[in-house]
Amino acid sequence: MTLHRLKTLLIVATLAFTACAGRQEEVVIHNEADLSGHKVGTIAGSIYDIQLSPRKDIALSLFTTVSDCTEALKSDKVDALLVDEVIFTQANLHRLGFKRACQLSQAFPTAYAFKKGEAELVPAFNSFIAEMKASGELARMIDYWFNTEDLSPQDYPQVETFTEGEPLRYGNCEVMAPMAFFDNGEWHGFEIDLVRRFGAYLKRPVQIELIDFPALILGLQMGKVDMIGGSIFVTEERKQQIDFGDPYYDVHPAVFVRDTDAAGARKSLKVLLVEAFRQNFLVENRWKMILDGLLTTLTITLWAILLGSLLGILLCAMARSRKKWMRSFVSLYDGFMFGIPMLVLLLIMFYVVLAHTGWGAVTIAIIAFALNFASSAGGVFRTAVESVPGGQTEAGLALGFTRLQTFGNIVLPQAVRVGLPLYKGECISLLKGTSIVGYIAIIDVTRASDLLRSRTFDAFLPLLAVTAIYFILAWLIGLILKLLTLNTRSK
Hints:
Layout: H1 2-19, E1 39-43, H2 47-52, E2 59-63, H3 66-74, E3 80-84, H4 90-96, E4 98-103, E5 108-110, E6 113-115, H5 121-135, H6 137-147, E7 168-172, E8 181-183, E9 186-188, H7 190-202, E10 206-210, H8 213-221, E11 227-229, H9 236-239, E12 242-244, E13 249-251, E14 253-258, H10 269-282, H11 287-319, H12 324-339, H13 342-353, H14 361-386, H15 390-398, H16 403-433, H17 445-456, H18 460-490
Parallel strand pairs: 1-2, 1-3, 7-10, 7-11
Antiparallel strand pairs: 3-14, 4-14, 5-13, 6-11, 6-12, 8-9
Helix pairs in contact: 11-12, 11-14, 11-17, 12-14, 13-14, 14-16, 15-16, 16-18, 17-18
Protein backbone atom coordinates (compact mmCIF):
# COMPACT_ATOMS: atom_id res chain seq x y z
CA MET A 1 0.00 0.00 0.00
CA THR A 2 2.86 2.34 0.86
CA LEU A 3 4.53 1.69 -2.51
CA HIS A 4 1.24 2.41 -4.30
CA ARG A 5 0.86 5.71 -2.46
CA LEU A 6 4.44 6.65 -3.25
CA LYS A 7 3.89 6.05 -6.97
CA THR A 8 0.66 8.05 -6.91
CA LEU A 9 2.38 10.92 -5.10
CA LEU A 10 5.21 10.93 -7.65
CA ILE A 11 2.79 11.10 -10.57
CA VAL A 12 0.68 13.84 -9.00
CA ALA A 13 3.74 15.89 -8.03
CA THR A 14 5.20 15.66 -11.52
CA LEU A 15 1.95 16.64 -13.19
CA ALA A 16 1.40 19.46 -10.74
CA PHE A 17 4.90 20.80 -11.35
CA THR A 18 4.44 20.61 -15.11
CA ALA A 19 1.02 22.22 -15.10
CA CYS A 20 1.58 24.89 -12.50
CA ALA A 21 5.10 26.09 -13.29
CA GLY A 22 5.50 29.79 -12.80
CA ARG A 23 5.75 32.29 -15.63
CA GLN A 24 9.23 33.02 -16.82
CA GLU A 25 10.69 36.34 -17.83
CA GLU A 26 9.87 37.24 -21.41
CA VAL A 27 12.58 36.54 -23.99
CA VAL A 28 12.68 39.19 -26.70
CA ILE A 29 14.33 38.18 -29.99
CA HIS A 30 13.88 40.14 -33.20
CA ASN A 31 16.72 38.70 -35.29
CA GLU A 32 19.57 36.21 -35.25
CA ALA A 33 21.87 38.67 -33.46
CA ASP A 34 19.46 38.82 -30.51
CA LEU A 35 20.20 35.15 -29.76
CA SER A 36 23.42 36.34 -28.12
CA GLY A 37 23.51 35.59 -24.41
CA HIS A 38 20.64 33.09 -24.60
CA LYS A 39 20.32 29.32 -24.30
CA VAL A 40 19.29 28.11 -27.75
CA GLY A 41 18.07 24.65 -28.74
CA THR A 42 18.06 23.03 -32.19
CA ILE A 43 18.31 19.64 -33.90
CA ALA A 44 21.68 17.88 -33.82
CA GLY A 45 23.25 17.51 -37.25
CA SER A 46 20.92 20.05 -38.86
CA ILE A 47 22.06 23.06 -40.85
CA TYR A 48 21.15 25.18 -37.83
CA ASP A 49 23.54 23.12 -35.71
CA ILE A 50 26.31 23.79 -38.23
CA GLN A 51 25.58 27.52 -38.28
CA LEU A 52 25.23 28.02 -34.53
CA SER A 53 28.04 25.75 -33.29
CA PRO A 54 30.88 28.23 -34.03
CA ARG A 55 29.16 30.98 -32.04
CA LYS A 56 30.63 31.53 -28.59
CA ASP A 57 28.03 34.08 -27.50
CA ILE A 58 25.21 31.53 -27.08
CA ALA A 59 24.75 28.35 -25.04
CA LEU A 60 23.77 25.80 -27.68
CA SER A 61 21.82 22.65 -26.75
CA LEU A 62 21.40 19.93 -29.37
CA PHE A 63 18.48 17.50 -29.44
CA THR A 64 17.62 14.43 -31.48
CA THR A 65 13.99 15.30 -32.24
CA VAL A 66 11.68 18.29 -32.33
CA SER A 67 9.74 16.69 -29.48
CA ASP A 68 12.85 16.89 -27.31
CA CYS A 69 13.34 20.51 -28.36
CA THR A 70 9.78 21.26 -27.40
CA GLU A 71 10.16 19.72 -23.95
CA ALA A 72 13.35 21.68 -23.40
CA LEU A 73 11.57 24.98 -24.11
CA LYS A 74 8.54 24.01 -22.02
CA SER A 75 10.74 23.18 -19.04
CA ASP A 76 12.93 26.32 -19.44
CA LYS A 77 16.07 24.33 -20.25
CA VAL A 78 16.48 26.63 -23.25
CA ASP A 79 15.32 30.19 -23.87
CA ALA A 80 14.58 29.76 -27.56
CA LEU A 81 14.35 27.19 -30.35
CA LEU A 82 15.73 27.64 -33.86
CA VAL A 83 13.85 25.18 -36.08
CA ASP A 84 11.86 25.06 -39.32
CA GLU A 85 8.99 27.54 -39.33
CA VAL A 86 6.49 24.96 -40.62
CA ILE A 87 6.93 22.72 -37.57
CA PHE A 88 4.52 24.57 -35.29
CA THR A 89 1.04 25.42 -36.49
CA GLN A 90 -0.78 28.29 -34.82
CA ALA A 91 -3.00 25.82 -32.98
CA ASN A 92 0.04 23.98 -31.60
CA LEU A 93 1.68 27.24 -30.55
CA HIS A 94 -1.43 28.22 -28.62
CA ARG A 95 -1.68 24.82 -26.94
CA LEU A 96 2.00 24.77 -25.99
CA GLY A 97 2.15 28.38 -24.85
CA PHE A 98 4.80 29.25 -27.45
CA LYS A 99 5.05 32.07 -29.96
CA ARG A 100 7.15 32.79 -33.01
CA ALA A 101 9.66 35.46 -32.04
CA CYS A 102 10.93 36.06 -35.56
CA GLN A 103 11.48 34.52 -38.95
CA LEU A 104 15.02 34.58 -40.33
CA SER A 105 15.49 35.92 -43.83
CA GLN A 106 17.52 33.00 -45.17
CA ALA A 107 15.59 30.20 -46.91
CA PHE A 108 16.81 26.65 -47.43
CA PRO A 109 15.69 24.55 -50.43
CA THR A 110 14.56 21.07 -49.46
CA ALA A 111 14.65 18.05 -51.77
CA TYR A 112 14.45 14.29 -51.85
CA ALA A 113 17.80 12.53 -52.04
CA PHE A 114 18.86 9.50 -54.06
CA LYS A 115 21.85 7.17 -54.11
CA LYS A 116 24.92 8.69 -55.71
CA GLY A 117 24.95 7.99 -59.44
CA GLU A 118 21.26 7.02 -59.60
CA ALA A 119 20.49 7.24 -63.33
CA GLU A 120 16.76 6.49 -63.44
CA LEU A 121 14.95 7.87 -60.40
CA VAL A 122 16.57 11.33 -60.36
CA PRO A 123 15.58 12.28 -63.97
CA ALA A 124 12.14 10.75 -63.42
CA PHE A 125 11.60 12.76 -60.26
CA ASN A 126 12.80 15.99 -61.89
CA SER A 127 10.33 15.47 -64.73
CA PHE A 128 7.59 14.72 -62.22
CA ILE A 129 8.22 17.80 -60.08
CA ALA A 130 8.42 20.00 -63.18
CA GLU A 131 4.94 18.80 -64.23
CA MET A 132 3.62 19.38 -60.69
CA LYS A 133 4.91 22.96 -60.74
CA ALA A 134 3.65 23.68 -64.25
CA SER A 135 0.13 22.40 -63.50
CA GLY A 136 -0.09 24.32 -60.23
CA GLU A 137 -0.68 21.09 -58.28
CA LEU A 138 2.43 21.58 -56.14
CA ALA A 139 1.25 25.08 -55.16
CA ARG A 140 -2.16 23.67 -54.20
CA MET A 141 -0.52 20.98 -52.07
CA ILE A 142 1.60 23.58 -50.27
CA ASP A 143 -1.45 25.73 -49.64
CA TYR A 144 -3.40 22.81 -48.21
CA TRP A 145 -0.74 21.30 -45.96
CA PHE A 146 0.76 24.55 -44.66
CA ASN A 147 -2.22 26.90 -44.54
CA THR A 148 -4.99 24.65 -43.24
CA GLU A 149 -5.16 25.00 -39.48
CA ASP A 150 -7.39 22.02 -38.69
CA LEU A 151 -6.28 19.06 -40.79
CA SER A 152 -8.98 16.39 -40.63
CA PRO A 153 -8.40 12.77 -41.70
CA GLN A 154 -11.49 12.77 -43.90
CA ASP A 155 -10.08 15.72 -45.85
CA TYR A 156 -6.64 14.24 -46.57
CA PRO A 157 -5.93 14.08 -50.32
CA GLN A 158 -6.60 10.72 -51.93
CA VAL A 159 -3.66 9.64 -54.08
CA GLU A 160 -3.78 6.83 -56.61
CA THR A 161 -1.90 3.82 -55.30
CA PHE A 162 -0.53 0.72 -56.98
CA THR A 163 -0.23 -2.70 -55.35
CA GLU A 164 1.77 -4.49 -58.03
CA GLY A 165 5.28 -3.94 -59.29
CA GLU A 166 8.59 -3.20 -57.65
CA PRO A 167 7.98 -1.00 -54.58
CA LEU A 168 9.47 2.46 -54.36
CA ARG A 169 11.16 2.33 -50.95
CA TYR A 170 11.10 5.71 -49.25
CA GLY A 171 13.06 6.44 -46.08
CA ASN A 172 11.66 9.23 -43.92
CA CYS A 173 13.41 10.72 -40.89
CA GLU A 174 10.90 13.36 -39.82
CA VAL A 175 7.69 12.69 -37.92
CA MET A 176 6.11 16.07 -37.53
CA ALA A 177 2.93 17.57 -38.96
CA PRO A 178 2.44 18.90 -41.55
CA MET A 179 5.51 17.37 -43.25
CA ALA A 180 5.05 13.72 -42.23
CA PHE A 181 3.04 12.18 -39.42
CA PHE A 182 0.97 9.18 -38.34
CA ASP A 183 -2.82 9.34 -38.16
CA ASN A 184 -4.78 6.20 -37.25
CA GLY A 185 -1.75 4.10 -38.07
CA GLU A 186 -1.30 5.59 -41.56
CA TRP A 187 1.33 7.96 -42.92
CA HIS A 188 0.15 11.43 -43.97
CA GLY A 189 1.66 14.84 -44.60
CA PHE A 190 3.04 17.06 -47.35
CA GLU A 191 6.16 15.02 -48.09
CA ILE A 192 4.27 11.73 -47.82
CA ASP A 193 1.61 13.04 -50.19
CA LEU A 194 4.27 14.15 -52.66
CA VAL A 195 6.21 10.87 -52.63
CA ARG A 196 2.97 8.91 -53.11
CA ARG A 197 2.17 11.03 -56.13
CA PHE A 198 5.66 10.27 -57.45
CA GLY A 199 4.97 6.56 -56.91
CA ALA A 200 1.73 6.91 -58.90
CA TYR A 201 3.70 8.75 -61.61
CA LEU A 202 6.03 5.74 -61.82
CA LYS A 203 3.11 3.29 -61.43
CA ARG A 204 4.90 1.69 -58.46
CA PRO A 205 3.63 1.02 -54.93
CA VAL A 206 5.26 3.15 -52.23
CA GLN A 207 6.82 1.54 -49.18
CA ILE A 208 7.60 3.99 -46.35
CA GLU A 209 10.27 3.32 -43.73
CA LEU A 210 10.91 5.43 -40.64
CA ILE A 211 14.68 5.83 -40.18
CA ASP A 212 16.54 8.04 -37.71
CA PHE A 213 18.39 10.89 -39.39
CA PRO A 214 21.90 9.64 -38.43
CA ALA A 215 21.23 6.36 -40.27
CA LEU A 216 19.22 7.84 -43.14
CA ILE A 217 22.03 8.45 -45.63
CA LEU A 218 23.71 5.16 -44.66
CA GLY A 219 20.48 3.31 -45.41
CA LEU A 220 20.31 4.97 -48.82
CA GLN A 221 23.94 4.16 -49.65
CA MET A 222 23.52 0.52 -48.59
CA GLY A 223 20.43 0.08 -50.76
CA LYS A 224 17.87 -0.34 -47.95
CA VAL A 225 15.76 2.45 -49.51
CA ASP A 226 15.56 4.06 -52.96
CA MET A 227 15.04 7.67 -51.86
CA ILE A 228 15.02 9.62 -48.62
CA GLY A 229 13.28 12.72 -47.34
CA GLY A 230 12.33 14.60 -44.21
CA SER A 231 12.99 18.31 -44.84
CA ILE A 232 16.51 17.53 -46.03
CA PHE A 233 18.31 20.73 -46.94
CA VAL A 234 20.42 20.76 -50.09
CA THR A 235 24.03 21.55 -49.17
CA GLU A 236 27.31 21.25 -51.04
CA GLU A 237 28.69 18.89 -48.41
CA ARG A 238 25.76 16.50 -48.78
CA LYS A 239 26.07 16.58 -52.55
CA GLN A 240 29.38 14.80 -52.14
CA GLN A 241 27.59 11.73 -50.76
CA ILE A 242 24.14 11.71 -52.37
CA ASP A 243 22.29 13.06 -55.39
CA PHE A 244 19.38 15.46 -54.93
CA GLY A 245 16.30 15.82 -57.04
CA ASP A 246 15.02 19.30 -57.87
CA PRO A 247 13.92 21.21 -54.72
CA TYR A 248 10.20 21.23 -54.01
CA TYR A 249 9.92 23.68 -51.09
CA ASP A 250 11.92 26.45 -49.44
CA VAL A 251 12.00 26.23 -45.65
CA HIS A 252 12.46 29.36 -43.55
CA PRO A 253 14.06 29.03 -40.11
CA ALA A 254 12.23 30.67 -37.23
CA VAL A 255 12.93 31.36 -33.58
CA PHE A 256 10.29 30.24 -31.08
CA VAL A 257 10.05 31.30 -27.43
CA ARG A 258 7.61 30.86 -24.58
CA ASP A 259 4.58 33.13 -24.73
CA THR A 260 4.46 34.69 -21.28
CA ASP A 261 1.23 36.50 -22.17
CA ALA A 262 -0.61 33.34 -23.27
CA ALA A 263 -4.21 33.61 -22.21
CA GLY A 264 -6.17 30.91 -20.49
CA ALA A 265 -7.35 30.16 -17.00
CA ARG A 266 -5.61 27.56 -14.89
CA LYS A 267 -7.23 24.16 -15.04
CA SER A 268 -7.48 21.66 -12.26
CA LEU A 269 -5.04 18.78 -12.16
CA LYS A 270 -7.84 16.34 -12.86
CA VAL A 271 -8.91 18.22 -15.98
CA LEU A 272 -5.30 18.48 -17.19
CA LEU A 273 -4.77 14.77 -16.64
CA VAL A 274 -7.96 13.81 -18.48
CA GLU A 275 -7.15 16.10 -21.39
CA ALA A 276 -3.59 14.79 -21.62
CA PHE A 277 -4.80 11.18 -21.55
CA ARG A 278 -7.36 11.85 -24.26
CA GLN A 279 -4.87 13.72 -26.45
CA ASN A 280 -2.14 11.09 -26.10
CA PHE A 281 -4.12 7.86 -26.33
CA LEU A 282 -7.71 8.36 -27.52
CA VAL A 283 -7.48 10.95 -30.30
CA GLU A 284 -6.82 9.24 -33.66
CA ASN A 285 -6.77 5.89 -31.77
CA ARG A 286 -3.19 6.60 -30.75
CA TRP A 287 -3.28 3.79 -28.19
CA LYS A 288 -3.04 1.40 -31.13
CA MET A 289 0.47 2.67 -31.85
CA ILE A 290 1.55 1.68 -28.34
CA LEU A 291 -0.15 -1.72 -28.69
CA ASP A 292 1.47 -2.43 -32.06
CA GLY A 293 4.83 -1.35 -30.68
CA LEU A 294 4.34 -3.63 -27.68
CA LEU A 295 3.65 -6.62 -29.93
CA THR A 296 6.79 -5.86 -31.94
CA THR A 297 8.88 -5.61 -28.76
CA LEU A 298 7.49 -8.93 -27.51
CA THR A 299 8.13 -10.62 -30.87
CA ILE A 300 11.78 -9.56 -30.97
CA THR A 301 12.36 -10.32 -27.28
CA LEU A 302 10.79 -13.79 -27.16
CA TRP A 303 12.28 -15.04 -30.42
CA ALA A 304 15.72 -13.67 -29.51
CA ILE A 305 15.56 -15.40 -26.11
CA LEU A 306 14.53 -18.69 -27.71
CA LEU A 307 17.11 -18.69 -30.51
CA GLY A 308 19.80 -17.19 -28.31
CA SER A 309 19.24 -19.85 -25.66
CA LEU A 310 19.57 -22.66 -28.18
CA LEU A 311 22.77 -21.16 -29.55
CA GLY A 312 23.95 -20.57 -25.99
CA ILE A 313 23.55 -24.26 -25.22
CA LEU A 314 25.69 -25.06 -28.26
CA LEU A 315 28.35 -22.56 -27.15
CA CYS A 316 28.31 -24.05 -23.66
CA ALA A 317 28.87 -27.54 -25.10
CA MET A 318 31.69 -26.29 -27.33
CA ALA A 319 33.35 -24.47 -24.41
CA ARG A 320 33.39 -27.74 -22.43
CA SER A 321 34.63 -29.76 -25.39
CA ARG A 322 38.00 -31.47 -25.34
CA LYS A 323 38.78 -30.01 -28.77
CA LYS A 324 40.91 -26.91 -28.49
CA TRP A 325 39.58 -25.24 -31.63
CA MET A 326 36.03 -25.32 -30.22
CA ARG A 327 37.11 -23.72 -26.96
CA SER A 328 39.10 -21.13 -28.87
CA PHE A 329 36.12 -20.30 -31.07
CA VAL A 330 33.87 -19.75 -28.05
CA SER A 331 36.49 -17.58 -26.39
CA LEU A 332 36.81 -15.46 -29.54
CA TYR A 333 33.03 -15.26 -29.98
CA ASP A 334 32.47 -14.18 -26.38
CA GLY A 335 35.25 -11.62 -26.61
CA PHE A 336 33.74 -10.11 -29.75
CA MET A 337 30.22 -9.89 -28.31
CA PHE A 338 31.53 -8.47 -25.05
CA GLY A 339 33.55 -5.78 -26.80
CA ILE A 340 31.00 -4.48 -29.34
CA PRO A 341 28.03 -2.26 -28.33
CA MET A 342 24.66 -3.79 -29.15
CA LEU A 343 23.67 -0.78 -31.25
CA VAL A 344 26.78 -1.12 -33.40
CA LEU A 345 26.13 -4.85 -33.86
CA LEU A 346 22.53 -4.13 -34.86
CA LEU A 347 23.58 -1.53 -37.44
CA ILE A 348 26.31 -3.78 -38.87
CA MET A 349 23.89 -6.68 -39.27
CA PHE A 350 21.21 -4.50 -40.85
CA TYR A 351 23.28 -2.30 -43.15
CA VAL A 352 26.24 -4.56 -43.97
CA VAL A 353 26.12 -8.28 -43.17
CA LEU A 354 22.45 -8.94 -43.99
CA ALA A 355 21.81 -5.84 -46.09
CA HIS A 356 21.10 -7.71 -49.33
CA THR A 357 19.27 -10.75 -47.98
CA GLY A 358 15.85 -9.20 -48.42
CA TRP A 359 14.94 -10.05 -44.83
CA GLY A 360 12.77 -7.67 -42.87
CA ALA A 361 14.11 -5.39 -40.15
CA VAL A 362 12.36 -7.37 -37.40
CA THR A 363 13.97 -10.63 -38.57
CA ILE A 364 17.42 -9.03 -38.63
CA ALA A 365 16.85 -7.53 -35.18
CA ILE A 366 15.93 -10.98 -33.82
CA ILE A 367 19.11 -12.47 -35.30
CA ALA A 368 21.32 -9.68 -33.93
CA PHE A 369 19.87 -9.86 -30.42
CA ALA A 370 19.95 -13.67 -30.46
CA LEU A 371 23.64 -13.68 -31.40
CA ASN A 372 24.42 -11.27 -28.57
CA PHE A 373 22.20 -13.07 -26.07
CA ALA A 374 23.79 -16.44 -26.95
CA SER A 375 27.13 -15.27 -25.59
CA SER A 376 25.75 -14.21 -22.21
CA ALA A 377 23.37 -17.18 -22.00
CA GLY A 378 26.17 -19.59 -22.85
CA GLY A 379 28.24 -18.11 -20.05
CA VAL A 380 25.36 -18.55 -17.61
CA PHE A 381 24.84 -22.17 -18.68
CA ARG A 382 28.54 -22.89 -18.36
CA THR A 383 28.71 -21.32 -14.89
CA ALA A 384 25.64 -23.25 -13.76
CA VAL A 385 26.95 -26.62 -14.99
CA GLU A 386 30.39 -26.07 -13.53
CA SER A 387 28.86 -25.20 -10.16
CA VAL A 388 27.85 -28.86 -9.75
CA PRO A 389 30.76 -30.81 -8.19
CA GLY A 390 32.42 -33.20 -10.64
CA GLY A 391 32.15 -35.98 -8.09
CA GLN A 392 28.41 -36.21 -8.67
CA THR A 393 28.98 -37.02 -12.33
CA GLU A 394 31.46 -39.69 -11.37
CA ALA A 395 28.99 -41.11 -8.84
CA GLY A 396 26.26 -41.28 -11.47
CA LEU A 397 28.53 -43.11 -13.89
CA ALA A 398 29.58 -45.51 -11.11
CA LEU A 399 25.91 -46.33 -10.52
CA GLY A 400 25.55 -47.41 -14.13
CA PHE A 401 23.99 -44.32 -15.64
CA THR A 402 25.12 -43.19 -19.08
CA ARG A 403 26.66 -39.75 -19.42
CA LEU A 404 23.42 -38.41 -20.87
CA GLN A 405 21.35 -39.92 -18.04
CA THR A 406 23.78 -38.58 -15.47
CA PHE A 407 23.59 -35.08 -16.89
CA GLY A 408 19.79 -35.09 -17.22
CA ASN A 409 18.95 -36.63 -13.84
CA ILE A 410 21.73 -35.38 -11.59
CA VAL A 411 23.64 -32.40 -13.01
CA LEU A 412 20.90 -30.50 -14.86
CA PRO A 413 18.41 -30.07 -11.96
CA GLN A 414 21.12 -28.61 -9.75
CA ALA A 415 22.51 -26.42 -12.54
CA VAL A 416 19.05 -24.99 -13.26
CA ARG A 417 18.64 -23.83 -9.68
CA VAL A 418 21.96 -22.00 -9.86
CA GLY A 419 21.60 -20.60 -13.37
CA LEU A 420 17.98 -19.42 -13.51
CA PRO A 421 18.47 -16.23 -11.43
CA LEU A 422 21.40 -15.24 -13.66
CA TYR A 423 19.43 -16.21 -16.77
CA LYS A 424 16.52 -14.03 -15.62
CA GLY A 425 18.80 -11.01 -15.45
CA GLU A 426 20.08 -11.61 -18.97
CA CYS A 427 16.51 -11.94 -20.31
CA ILE A 428 15.47 -8.67 -18.71
CA SER A 429 18.57 -6.95 -20.08
CA LEU A 430 17.64 -8.21 -23.55
CA LEU A 431 14.10 -6.87 -23.16
CA LYS A 432 15.35 -3.41 -22.23
CA GLY A 433 17.99 -3.52 -24.95
CA THR A 434 15.37 -3.84 -27.67
CA SER A 435 14.55 -0.15 -27.19
CA ILE A 436 17.28 0.65 -29.76
CA VAL A 437 15.59 -1.13 -32.70
CA GLY A 438 14.14 2.17 -33.89
CA TYR A 439 17.53 2.84 -35.45
CA ILE A 440 16.73 0.25 -38.15
CA ALA A 441 13.22 1.45 -38.98
CA ILE A 442 11.32 -0.71 -36.48
CA ILE A 443 8.43 0.84 -34.57
CA ASP A 444 8.70 -0.85 -31.19
CA VAL A 445 7.06 0.40 -28.00
CA THR A 446 9.80 3.01 -27.43
CA ARG A 447 9.61 4.37 -30.96
CA ALA A 448 5.80 4.38 -30.70
CA SER A 449 6.08 6.72 -27.71
CA ASP A 450 8.36 8.97 -29.78
CA LEU A 451 5.70 9.10 -32.50
CA LEU A 452 3.09 10.03 -29.89
CA ARG A 453 5.30 12.82 -28.60
CA SER A 454 5.80 14.13 -32.10
CA ARG A 455 2.02 14.52 -32.46
CA THR A 456 1.11 15.79 -28.99
CA PHE A 457 4.34 17.52 -27.88
CA ASP A 458 3.76 15.90 -24.51
CA ALA A 459 6.56 13.80 -23.07
CA PHE A 460 5.21 12.84 -19.67
CA LEU A 461 2.33 10.45 -20.38
CA PRO A 462 3.91 8.61 -23.38
CA LEU A 463 7.14 8.05 -21.45
CA LEU A 464 5.20 7.06 -18.33
CA ALA A 465 3.25 4.51 -20.37
CA VAL A 466 6.43 3.04 -21.85
CA THR A 467 8.07 2.93 -18.41
CA ALA A 468 5.08 1.04 -17.02
CA ILE A 469 5.11 -1.40 -19.96
CA TYR A 470 8.80 -2.26 -19.57
CA PHE A 471 8.38 -2.58 -15.80
CA ILE A 472 5.44 -4.99 -16.18
CA LEU A 473 7.19 -7.06 -18.86
CA ALA A 474 10.36 -7.32 -16.76
CA TRP A 475 8.26 -8.31 -13.74
CA LEU A 476 6.44 -10.98 -15.76
CA ILE A 477 9.73 -12.45 -17.04
CA GLY A 478 11.06 -12.54 -13.50
CA LEU A 479 7.86 -14.12 -12.20
CA ILE A 480 7.80 -16.86 -14.85
CA LEU A 481 11.43 -17.78 -14.27
CA LYS A 482 10.93 -17.66 -10.51
CA LEU A 483 8.08 -20.13 -10.82
CA LEU A 484 10.33 -22.37 -12.92
CA THR A 485 12.97 -22.17 -10.20
CA LEU A 486 10.50 -23.13 -7.46
CA ASN A 487 9.17 -25.96 -9.60
CA THR A 488 12.70 -27.27 -10.13
CA ARG A 489 13.52 -27.10 -6.42
CA SER A 490 10.37 -29.05 -5.55
CA LYS A 491 11.49 -32.03 -7.60
